[in-house]
Amino acid sequence: MRNELSWNIIKKFSSDDLDCFSYQDVVKEYSSTDKIYLSKVLSRMVDNGMLIKLSRGLYYIVPTNADAENYIPDWHLVAKYIMKGRKYYIGYYSAMQVHNLITQPGLKEIIVTDHQFTSSSRNIQGIEFQFVTHISKRFFGYKNTWINQHNKAMVSDLEKTIVDAVTRPHLCGGMVEVGKAIYEARERVSLDKLLNYLIKNESQAAIKRYLFICELVDIKWTSYHEGILQKKGNSYSLLDTSAPNQGSKNSKFGLKINVDVDTIKNSIYT
């Protein structure tokens, strides 16, 4: 049963404009109350649909007018809360959504970190939160970004979102989605920053995929594009890491074309 303390906790943290709070926050606020009792109260609040447990000792307030069983909080905001105190950024397909590069959000939030988690994913209210580890040289290009009208979180900037997408297309819905994103962002990106990021990222495959898409969808080709094309190396990479290892070879870009390029073009122009 929802007792007086339960409602008091909801009122206290809601009045502070907090959607989320920790067990330690509650212990600090109600220091004269037994810790074990407070833990039981919070567990009961989860059972009664007043709170969603995001992780151990971390809770999200369910709005009083919401259906607790089916309520899904803002995924990007949840990512911010569960990564509090750690270096992270919202990346890949999730960042593409923040930057309005896609029309169909997936039921997954991708969080980039600089350290390995015990588990690579976590399910919260039916949404998968996937943790992707980047080595230090690739953990860059993110900033505090508006994710809704009231909140900010760490998100890869537009240029790094494109670079990450061509580095691991399988985390962005495949090259059809990546191609659309590159085309959609063509007037908004800083070309200097994007090309510098590609070099800093140290992935020949990423460079080749980006340049291939630029030519495919008639994005203006410059001397800068030609310059980084010389860094592609001699090996062949898959165009799409989400597709089978098959297809014809493109010697100009050093790619094995394992998806129908007309599908990429049609997704943009139709």
Question: Overview of this structure, please?
Answer:
The chain has 270 residues and is an alpha+beta fold. It folds into three domains: 4-61, Arc Repressor Mutant, subunit A (Orthogonal Bundle), CATH 1.10.10; 77-156, no CATH class; 186-270, no CATH class. It is 40% helix and 19% strand. It has helices at 4-15, 23-29, 35-47, 75-82, 92-98, 158-167, 175-184, 191-201, 204-216, 223-229, 261-269; strands at 20-22, 51-55, 58-61, 88-90, 108-113, 121-124, 127-133, 142-146, 152-156, 237-238, 248-250, 255-257. The strands form four sheets. The protein has a four-stranded mixed beta sheet. A three-stranded antiparallel beta sheet has the order 1-3-2. A three-stranded mixed beta sheet has the order 10-12-11, with helices on one face. A hairpin with a 5-residue loop joins strand 8 and strand 9. The protein starts with a helix and ends with a helix.
